[in-house]
Design brief:
The protein is of the alpha/beta class and 264 residues long. Helix content is 44%, strand content 16%. Helix 2 crosses helix 3, helix 4 packs parallel to helix 6 and helix 5 crosses helix 7. The radius of gyration is 24 Å and the shape is elongated.
Length: 264
């Protein structure tokens, strides 16, 4: 019997598999994600870059559509290659023109700032936008977009010995929070993102008289204190291992507000 060629053998195998109904499948089409559209923007506050990239990876793993843009002042520290390799992002927008970025922002549901920095925050608190880093965030604010930002790029308020500077930094954060921005530690970006995405569920639950509230806050800042005072609360519940900023602690004493669970 003549020796069969490899191609002949493969042809026979394919025919048999086809007869059995288990022939080679066509190339799988990419799954269309149906979640919200997320635009990540990296600023120059890259003190915890590795943690930020891991959090971006976790968010990217959710059912969301993502794009990534790095502002020009941060590109000597982080680039599209880093984000593609370490976070798994595919849609890198660093070469897009300003009008293109604005179009992407317009289509986005939420802006995530994994490496937000104090310089940009100070500009935004005064409604200044003189570079791409401040312009994209201010544009998102003007459009009423949801914005989640890391606060670890700032000077650590707990480590500041100058109370005036600490209060100024807290004041900048409070101003931006009053604009609608949400801040959290870098390692809580994914968790906070998920909480923001479940906002509608919480509203529905509230209307039904069902509480989905967590047993306590992970972080209490001046924003939470002012909100509690405005709501005429007497206490704020702090989660296990939660943190209270020095300014929040001072304000709580000033308003006779008890932070339950806070270390004395």
């Amino acid at each position: 019997m003549d020796t069969l060629s490899l191609e002949s053998v493969m042809k026979v195998v394919r025919e048999v598999l086809r007869e059995l109904g288990v022939g080679a499948k066509e190339a799988a089409q990419p799954v269309e994600k149906k979640g919200p559209r997320v635009l990540f923007v990296f600023h120059s506050g890259v003190r915890r870059l590795d943690v930020a990239l891991e959090q971006v990876r976790l968010i990217e793993a959710s059912p969301v559509k993502c794009g990534v843009y790095t502002v020009s002042s941060a590109r000597n520290r982080v680039c599209g290659g880093d984000v593609r390799e370490k976070a798994g992002s595919q849609c890198i927008l660093d070469t897009v023109k300003p009008e293109g970025l604005e179009k992407v922002l317009l289509l986005s549901d939420i802006l995530v700032l994994p490496t937000f920095c104090l310089k940009t925050a100070a500009k935004l608190a005064r409604l200044i936008c003189d570079d791409d880093g401040s312009s994209v965030v201010l544009s998102a604010l003007l459009q009423g977009k949801r914005i989640l930002a890391s606060r670890d790029g700032f000077l650590l308020c707990d480590a500041l010995g100058n109370d005036k500077i600490r209060d100024e930094v807290e004041g900048i954060l409070a101003k931006l929070q009053s604009f609608g921005m949400v801040f959290c530690p870098t390692d809580m970006l994914h968790e906070t993102f998920q909480a923001m995405m479940s906002e509608k569920k919480e509203k529905i639950a509230a209307a039904a008289g069902i509480s989905l509230a967590a047993p306590g806050l992970r972080l209490v800042t001046s924003k939470e204190v002012y909100a509690a005072v405005e709501a005429k609360q007497k206490t704020i519940c702090l989660a296990a291992n939660g943190r209270v900023t020095p300014l929040a602690r001072d304000l709580a004493k000033e308003y006779s507000l008890e932070i339950v669970g806070a270390a004395r």
